[in-house]
Design goal:
mainly alpha, 6 helices
């Protein structure tokens, strides 16, 4: 799996893991968080490698489809991008705003990201 896709899969898992079955979560914990291979997961859980592969693919598709409908990761990225933009503006030497207000806005932006 490509690094970018693997990172995205990890992010999907962090948001949508509660909608998976316990068995899917067990498999993905080993696959994503422990970096086990499909064969290692198969040995660890006493199921076939093909069953592990199928569970990973089904879980991935379920989370991808859910993200397509709900867009939670997309919204989180949007909020983080906007907060970082505000932080950049506030940290600019050209921005004139009193320090107390600036610090309050910075604190809110940091909470968002």
């Amino acid at each position: 799996m490509e690094i970018d896709k693997f990172v995205y899969f990890n992010k999907l898992y962090s948001v949508y893991r509660d909608m998976l079955t316990e068995k899917q979560r067990d498999i993905l914990e080993l696959y994503l968080l422990e970096d086990f291979s499909l064969g290692e997961i198969s040995d660890e859980l006493g199921i076939s490698r093909q069953a592990v592969h199928d569970a990973v693919k089904r879980s991935e598709q379920l989370m991808f489809d859910t993200e397509s409908r709900l867009g939670i990761l997309k919204k989180e990225k949007y909020i983080a991008d906007k907060a970082n933009l505000i932080i950049g503006i506030l940290n600019s030497k050209d921005t004139t705003i009193d320090n107390d207000s600036k610090n309050k806005i910075l604190d809110v932006c940091k909470e968002l990201i």
